[in-house]
Amino acid sequence: MRHLLSTEDLSLQNAIRILDTAEEMAAVGEREVKKLPALRGRTVVNLFFEDSTRTRISFEAAAKRLSADVINFAAKGSSVSKGESLKDTAQTLAAMGADAVVIRHWASGAPHRLAATDWIDAAVINAGDGTHEHPTQALLDAFTMRRHWAKLAGIPSTGADLQGMRVAIAGDVLHSRVARSNVWLLRTLGAEVTLVAPPTLLPIGVEKWPCTVSFDLDETLAKGVDAMMMLRVQGERMNASFFPTTREYSRRWGFDDNRLRALDTLGLKDTIIMHPGPMNRGLEISSAAADSPRSTVLAQVRNGVSIRMAALYLLLSGETREPAASSHAANPNATYSHQESH
Amino acid sequence: MLTRVVLNQADIDRALTRIAHEILEANKGSQDLVLLGIPRRGYPLAVRLAAKIAAADPTVDAAAIVGQLDVTMFRDDLSHQPTRPPYPTQLPRTGIDNKVVVLIDDVLYSGRTIRAALDALIDLGRPRIVRLAVLIDRGHRELPIRADHVGKNLPTSSSEKVRVRLEETDSVDGVPVNEVVIEATA
Amino acid sequence: MAEQQQHASNSGAYLIRGAAILGGAAEDLLIRDGIIAARGPHLDADGVGVGDATVIEAAGLVALPGMVDIHTHLREPGREDAETVETGTRAAALGGYTAVHAMANSTPVADTAGVVEQVLTLGRAAGWVDVRPVGAVTVGLAGEQLAELGAMADSRARVRVFSDDGICVHDPVLMRRALEYVKAFDGVVAQHAQEPRLTAGAQMNEGEVSAVLGLAGWPAVAEESIIARDVLLAQHVGSRLHVCHVSTAGSVEIIRWAKSRGVNVTAEVTPHHLWLTDELARSYDPVYKVNPPLRTDADVQALRAALADGTIDVVGTDHAPHPSEHKECEWAQAAMGMTGLETALSVVQHTMIETGLMGWADFARVTSTAPAGIGRLQDQGRPLEAGEPANVILVDPAARWTVDPSKMATMGRNSPFAGRELPGRVVATFFKGHPTVLDGTLNTPYRWPDDAADAPAVRS
């Protein structure tokens, strides 16, 4: 892995590798000294073209726990807002010696551009791009689900996948990078995904996605759900006629107290309720649901740091330059040399 | 390639029995002992040593004194090697503060792994004493580090490959030395 | 010699020996004094005064009428950092064109007689092709008030094609009035069919790919609904309508239906829409960002079939050069458009001729005769016969070349075909009997006489 741009092209092997590494990183978070020297001397730039304090501090905590130097570059108030291009910004960061760029951008595909061009030769981590993807969010969601699913099965989560887990994702799928990243990753991990949304908030072409689509949240719950993920709905969508009123949205597609009670009635005692945050309490999720023992909202935040540590470590710790294929051929033991270097 | 086996299964077992007794002797008993194996093969060696210590001292619960210490993230060659995912670190429930920690590894060579292990250990707590036990010491140290307990001193050339094979990880016990033959190329 | 040709004589005489006329039988063409002086097998054997002619051995080459682009963006005046009339028309000559229609979305907009006359003058000063200015339909392309269409029609530029291209004339009343008004001088309204509300913020074709990429969708219905409305309007008021860059299978069906009802509508397709699909957007490389967007393979196949059966009348390049900084950025930030003048012939050969859908005679129809007819160009798109204006190109259909935008004459480096191997090469372009291109490279421009008449008026 050179970059982490999307979950669509993340192999099962690499997904499990990130999740397993995150398990080890999580253990570090429980220690007295929550710091590892692994990325000492490496520079991680948080390049944020869109405000997101939560994601930014999560990446910052992750990089710092790995002893990397962190530079925060917020586009607002910087030369970027004065018209400097992404290319110039990237070249500036390259000149400063950035080893990794964590990029959050309002434009879908901006991280792909950084990775595909010669503007900068650094590892690129997509921290959310437009309405495209948010791979570390999906990974931390999967991490949270996997711990739950493995515990129910009585097996260790390390090495496990999500085979057979039923996950429903409800809300504004059309504009959600979280939904997209989750659909691809959860499919890779073997979960069964159902998207629940008003038809106006589903993209044209969703029928080709590897998931089921429903317009009816109650019907979806009745069929059985192991993890219920609510997506943030922005009230301003109402003004663009995606739905008539927030109240109507909430009644039909929000996880309210009635639906929370329904989980018990339906015998879904182990179903967890997830939300990527920040929540609109009373719109897509009721306070009772958000604060119930089923809610994994805070665990998701905690796991976010572990996942981002794993991603940074796996992208940055390897050889600075990819070895040429010929050097592998010349020394077939090279790959395993760490087992020999005592 | 010339292969010779320097230790077989019985040799390994004998060496570990001796090391177990040396550890008890050096510590004047089993008081505060914690054995931390370094992945991958240091850990099964630590488990075996703990069992032998428990056999010698029935007050010892073998499972309660053994743990695993991953040093991956503390290595000084992370940016010169392919990425390696970390192994779990598992400490005994008693922790390591004020304990006598014996680090266990299969082969002592440059000493860099042990340097990393000492750093990793210090981030986890403050042991009273840290000792080092290895199955093979093959020399060629690059740091001022030496082992307290050694199964076998094995003078080698640095072109040789010393591999420890254990049943737990490699389904067979033995220490083969593969002398790498560099063929002349035109 | 070049100096001599520039000043003393535009042409001299050229004997094209053994070219396949429209891909048919090999014959000779004698070009002299701006016209095709003679056509026939073995002209020098017949001895009709070819002694002073420069001989061009054209065995294996196809002779075609000079191509006419109904849809070019030359950017001048205003965006000379993107293209100038000089560079754009050099590209046109190299691509086999002898006339281009320069779209009105310059700065200032070509919405007055003054601006269209300026563009005409720039085109003549360059001398590589006949530059025919397109006039804006509405003042400043703002879609609010009709521009002075009559003044532009009566100007020295003799404008006959009016378009707000880049922006749709979406107000149905304004569109109706424009269609009606241009009847007074046999004009045509070339519509950029894009319903603006359905395409607010649109980035690419709306479908499976946009759903995955999270790029705002440009639905086919936004094009088709405008075309449907416009063909009905054109029928109602009995006017001539041209539909720019048709991009969807649904649009093809509507146009086919309209033509069957006798509506006076013509339609255009770009080379890129005949080949490329929205799958390319997966790279997020803005070189593939264009308006209307690249569609699906089903659309591509429908467009090819429609061009072959005449439902779509012409190939128009929509040549849209952009400075590199407008493409070296995020997809959503990038400008829409692709260069096309220097690849159009090859792409049409690849998609239409090598697929067996069309022959070279059809090629001449869709790239020359039909667009000249839409633009009412008197001396373009003519048969390759004795006495006709010598706007002729020679094409080597067996040539293969790899597209390298850095070697193009256009200032735009935004070719979506970069790196692709294409068939077909323009060997020579004769514009008014003068070779603007020889041996596949630029020769010298045609020099208009100081007393050249205004742009030729209506031909019907």
TrEMBL record, chain A:
Keyword Transferase among record annotations: yes
Boundaries of every Aspartate/ornithine carbamoyltransferase carbamoyl-P binding domain copy: 2-146
Residue ranges constituting the Aspartate/ornithine carbamoyltransferase Asp/Orn-binding domain according to the UniProt record: 163-315
The protein's enzyme class: transferase
GO CC list: cytosol
Annotated EC: 2.1.3.2
Catalytic activity as recorded in UniProt: carbamoyl phosphate + L-aspartate = N-carbamoyl-L-aspartate + phosphate + H(+)
A Pfam family the protein falls into: OTCace_N
Matches recorded under SUPFAM superfamilies: Aspartate/ornithine carbamoyltransferase
Record key words, sorted: Pyrimidine biosynthesis, Transferase
Entry GO MF terms: amino acid binding; aspartate carbamoyltransferase activity
Highest taxon above the source species: Bacteria
GO BP annotations listed: 'de novo' pyrimidine nucleobase biosynthetic process; 'de novo' UMP biosynthetic process; amino acid metabolic process
Keyword Oxidoreductase: no
InterPro entries (UniProt xref): Asp/Orn_carbamoyltranf_P-bd, Asp/Orn_carbamoylTrfase, Asp/Orn_carbamoylTrfase_sf, Asp_carbamoyltransf, Asp_carbamoyltransf_Asp/Orn-bd
UniProt-listed NCBIfam families: asp_carb_tr, PRK00856.1
Family: Belongs to the aspartate/ornithine carbamoyltransferase superfamily. ATCase family.
Binding partners and assembly: Heterododecamer (2C3:3R2) of six catalytic PyrB chains organized as two trimers (C3), and six regulatory PyrI chains organized as three dimers (R2).
Protein name: Aspartate carbamoyltransferase
Classification lineage: Bacteria, Bacillati, Actinomycetota, Actinomycetes, Micrococcales
Gene from which this protein is expressed: pyrB
UniProtKB/TrEMBL annotation, chain B:
Catalyzed chemical reaction(s): UMP + diphosphate = 5-phospho-alpha-D-ribose 1-diphosphate + uracil
Motif (PRPP-binding): 101-113
Alphabetical GO biological process terms: regulation of DNA-templated transcription
GO MF annotation list: uracil phosphoribosyltransferase activity
InterPro entries assigned to the protein according to its UniProt record, in alphabetical order: PRTase-like, PRTase_dom, PyrR, PyrR_bifunctional
SUPFAM superfamilies xrefs: PRTase-like
E.C. designation(s): 2.4.2.9
Pfam families recorded: Pribosyltran (PF00156)
Annotated keywords: Glycosyltransferase, Transcription, Transcription regulation, Transferase
Domain of life: Bacteria
Domain called Phosphoribosyltransferase: residue spans: 11-149
Family: Belongs to the purine/pyrimidine phosphoribosyltransferase family. PyrR subfamily.
Function text: Also displays a weak uracil phosphoribosyltransferase activity which is not physiologically significant.
NCBIfam families for this protein: PRK05205.1-3, PRK05205.1-5
Alphabetical list of HAMAP family matching this protein: PyrR
Protein name: Bifunctional protein PyrR
Originating organism: Arthrobacter oryzae
TrEMBL record, chain C:
GO molecular function, one term: dihydroorotase activity
PROSITE patterns, alphabetized: DIHYDROOROTASE_2
TM region(s), chain numbering: none
UniProt KW keywords: Hydrolase, Metal-binding, Pyrimidine biosynthesis, Zinc
CC annotations in GO: cytoplasm
Entry binding sites for Zn(2+) 1: 71, 73, 165, 318
Binding residues for Zn(2+) 2: 165, 192, 245
Protein name according to UniProt: Dihydroorotase
